[in-house]
């Protein structure tokens, strides 16, 4: 009975319906007009869409079962090893860095816009470093290993990535004056939309969303980000507002004639949990051990993925540059 109760609580927790269910049981539906009540209605959207997406996959005979299986194992593993680390890091950052803020924002609509732009800047920094520093890529690569795009990819993360990401994003926001209450609101919005942009073609075929594709980051943009095609690799690092991708030259729209090929460039067994979760760490360890001299060993850790002490570099910057050059000739 204890096992069944634990299983029930895990299912309810995954679906995110516990808070809404408690409100419904009280019969006080006015609670849904509060911020917490609205959150209780929004939390279940992504898990329920994921289940619908999986059902549609079976109907269309495109279930992507290998991806769902491995991402489910990652979700279960992370529930045990990294449940509260990210929350603890955010709390510590608030205590450390809020007193150092150059000024403080207020609870107004214009400060909210400012705060969201700053949050996206912090997100860009974390995400860019996650692709350009191999040590950080080891934390982020698990999210890029699925060879199909669907909502289960939302749960494919190495357990240390969230603390690393939230430390950078939170620190940037706090130092630039974003107050904690507004920060938590933005984190909620960002987390919900950040999950949705992984929606797969079984549910949304053309994810450009018309004119919205020009003014915000759509699932189409994020499909490009997850692609390993030379044109697409290491682009679209933002999450909702693509302003910083445009500023730093990493913006790329999906091309009708170039279908995204998902996954990472390293040959990988995407159905193997160990290879998906620890493969990049193992590969880095092998390179560090075999590299001659301390300088080369450290370079493998901090240089971009694809860097080689032999000079035969295959970094994303080189791969994309060579592709663009070949297109222009």
From TrEMBL:
Membrane topology: Multi-pass membrane protein
Record localization: Endomembrane system
Residue ranges of the TM segments: 41-60, 72-97, 109-129
InterPro entries: Fatty_acid_hydroxylase, Sterol_desaturase/TMEM195
Membrane found in the keyword field: yes
Extent of the signal sequence: none
Keywords assigned by UniProt, alphabetized: Lipid metabolism, Membrane, Oxidoreductase, Transmembrane, Transmembrane helix
Coiled coil: none
Residue ranges occupied by any Fatty acid hydroxylase domain in the UniProt entry: 113-250
Descriptive protein name: Sterol desaturase family protein
Annotated source species: Maribacter cobaltidurans
